[in-house]
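With this grant's support, we have settled on a layout for protein records. One resulting record is reproduced below.
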Amino acid sequence: MPTYFTFDGIKIDLYFDDHAPPHFHAIYAEYEELIVIQTLDSYQGYLPAKQRKRVIKWARENQSILMEIWKNNH
């Protein structure tokens, strides 16, 4: 379960052979949220509002990179 990106105390992990739909894990302190790459909708879990807003902004800017990582690992 490699961490591919970190910013503002948030880790972005993508796991090898993880289940569909294509998603990433955003981890901040004791919080974790799974976010669908294509829609940026929450799949499972929870992040505080401030961190979630930052993650979604970052993910929107890096959606193609996230999808490429997913495809390379599945």
Q: What stands out?
A: The longest strand covers residues 23-28. Residues 3-72 form one domain. Residues 7 and 58 are 9 Å apart (CA to CA).
